Amino acid sequence: MERLSARDFRLVGDFIADVYRLDDVDAFRRHSAAALTKLIPSDMTSYNEMNPRLGVSVNWLDPPEIDTPVRAQVWQDHMHEHPILRHYLQTKTGHACRISDFISQRQFRESTLYNELYRGFDVRYQLATHLPTLPPLVIALALHRGRHDFSERERLILNVLRPHLERAYHNAQTVNQIRRDVRSLTEALEESKWGVVTLTERGRIRLVTPQAGRWLKEYFGWQAQRRELPLDLQRWATAQNSKMDRRCDLTRRPAPLVVPREGRELRVRLLANAGRCTLLFEERYGARSPEAFCRPAGPRSQCSRNRCPRLGD
């Protein structure tokens, strides 16, 4: 039974650590194709996202200069002939396979796939694995050589990496989706009357929408490069959090912070959940007097010891 050496485990561990750091699908595609050759020497490595039903494939090759539109089209026209891909579509088993597991060298060299595509790359041997995905998408990572076949040790390395490649891909895909959702939410908020700031558990700024950033600068003199709230706003948020923690006067809604300025006013509300805070900003016209700054909008709270501090306190 084939076993990996201590050196193999070190290299595999380094690869896994690097691939889990990738938080973008495009970076995952490029990195996985290039980094595999450090573990398993090859003349060419490819990452392929395919839809065999439609005969469509998008490919990332290393080295990238060998990828041309003509070769990409030839691959799309003949990928259904590939013995490893056919095996995967029949069995849905993504374990690492070699072309030589299914056909001989003579049969491969006589195939249209070889003569139309792989002959131009001088590729005679291939080792490939597939990552589990929802159909009809098929993701394959393949290593190619021209002089000698891949060993059982190299197959084992690829099989060890496969579950980590799968998880790293889905992690990067999830982060991409979160980023798209945040962009959509930010754009929607920009179209609305609200600005939003989310805070870490330590009170530092995690996310600030463009509108909230403009109001922070206008009303508080905040500088965009800072990841902390303006001191006065920070004090108010701390006081509001303290009131919520002590459950002071639960019959009343938390009062907003009101900052007047030249016929306008900025209202800030704090939402807290499990130690995480979000600030909602809304600008209104027809400001109250400066004396009303930071005073609850409704009836005065009965809990005087927890009243909201004024600026300058």
- Order of strands in the sheet with most strands: 2-1-5-4-3
| Overall shape | elongated
- If you average the pLDDT, what whole number results? 87
Number of strands: 10
- How many separate helices? 9
Order of H and E elements: HHEEHHEHHEEHEEHHEEE
Uncertain runs are 291-313
SS-based class: alpha+beta
**What's the architecture of the largest domain, going by CATH?**
2-Layer Sandwich
Q: What is the number of domains?
A: 2
CATH topology of the largest domain: Beta-Lactamase
Indicate the proportion of strand residues: 15-25%
Work out the radius of gyration.
30 Å
Q: Please describe the biggest sheet, giving its number of strands, its sense, and whether it closes into a barrel.
A: 5 strands, antiparallel
End-to-end distance? 74 Å
Helix content: 40-55%
The CATH H-level superfamily of the largest domain is Transcription factor LuxR-like, autoinducer-binding domain
> What is the CATH first-level class name of the largest domain?
Alpha Beta
How would you portray this structure in words?
With 313 residues, the chain is of the alpha+beta class. The chain has 2 domains: 6-178, Transcription factor LuxR-like, autoinducer-binding domain (Beta-Lactamase); 192-306, Beta-Lactamase. It is built from 9 helices and 10 strands. The longest helix has 40 residues, at 152-191. The termini are far apart.
